[in-house]
Structures are given as structure tokens and as C-alpha cells.
Amino acid sequence: MNKKHIQKYLLHLLLCLGTGLYAQFKEPIINLEHFDSKRYQWGYYFGGNTFDFKVDYKELDYHTNNLREIGVERKIGFNVGLTGSVRLMPLLDLRIEPGLVYNKRELTFPGFDEPRDALRDAQSTYIYIPLLLKFSAKRWYNVKPYVTAGTSMVFNLSSNHNLNIDNADRTFRVKKNVFFYELGLGIDFYTHYFRVSPSIRALFSVNNELIPDNNPSSPWTSNLNGLKTRGFLFNLNFE
Length: 239
Hints:
The protein has helices at 3-26, 59-63, 115-118, and strands at 40-57, 71-73, 76-89, 92-96, 99-108, 119-136, 143-156, 177-190, 195-205, 224-238. By secondary structure, it is mostly beta strands. The chain has two domains: 1-30; 34-238, Beta Barrel (Porin). Strands 1, 2, 3, 4, 5, 6, 7, 8, 9 and 10 form a ten-stranded antiparallel sheet that branches. It starts with a helix and ends with a strand.
């Protein structure tokens, strides 16, 4: 083989390689190509959360300038649960994601000299049952952003709602059943074996959770109309 034939062979080889690389970049491999055509999908999730309280003070305190605000310190908790999804139409799914959500908040009440009187723990062990609509954008290769909206109900196993003792006995009480509305966003990533979806979700309770102390003049709850939970969930979903 002479020099001219070698040059032609190398040029042909480079053209083939270039065409192949161009095709790879132009048309990347589509993972789980028919995944979204399934009517039902199942999976699980885990993640973290952070919660606080929106405190509603009595109007009398505002008018008399005698308002002393309660301090709420956020803590980091964890979430774990299962997911179920049914496709209602292209790009719209109905989802249920029952799970366990644990969190702890520390409340600091003003006007006390002793820390044992001023500090109360508000532990929340939620049995969490959300019902959500998932609105997805069109899939772009192996990525698909989405938003969620819906409602949820929780049962707080740490509410102390059935106890007769209260803050005078260093026990903070809230109602057991709480209802939320939720808004969230996330991104679906399609791998070779499964779909993974990081997401963030904001929750806002709609009902007053406070159980007032037995004493109407309680220094802990007498100046409160109510408490409402608000927070964020950070989840990693696998389906």
C-alpha cells in the first residue's frame, strides 16, 4: 500500500470517527425511554426537613404595646416514605406519598428568669399523607422539570393532646391532626436503571394547632391566639 492509499484510508477512518462522535453528541442515549408511558409507578423517598411556627398573638397585646415575642428555633429533621403515582394525562400525574416526618422545634417564652421555665420542646412525629398533582414539562433527553401542588394531612404522634398536664408541668401541647397545603418543584433524572428526582416542597398548615394551658392566665399561652406550622421538605425520590 503506497503513501496515497494510506492517506486516503486514514482520512476515511477520521471521517467515520468524526461522524460517530457527532451522532453521539447530537443524539445522546435515552434512558428508560418508555418509562413515562406507564399508567402506574411506585417508589420510595428519603430526605430532610425544617419547620417553625407562625405565631398569632392576641390583638390586646398589640394595642397595649405589651407584646413579647416567642422565639422559635428551627431544627433539621428527616423524612422517609413510599410513593405511588397514576398518570391522568400526558404531563399530569396524581401522586400519593405516605411517610414518616420527624422534627423538633425549641420555643423560648419571654419573661422567665429560669431556662427550665422559658424553654419548651415541640417534637413532631408526623404520619404524613399528602395528595398531590404533578405538572411536568416535556422531557428533554434524560431530564424533566416539574412542579407539584396539593394538600396533606398529618397525625402528630408527639402532640401530647390527650394529657391533662401543660406548660406548668413543662409539657407543651398541640393538636394531633394538622392539615396543610403544599407547593413544590423538582427535576426528574432518568438513569439506566431508575428515575431519581430531587425536590423541595413548602408546607403551610391551615388550622390552629395550639392547645391552651388549663390556666387562662398562663404566662405561656394566655397571649396566644394560635400556632400554625410552616416548613420545607427536601426529598430524593427513586422510582
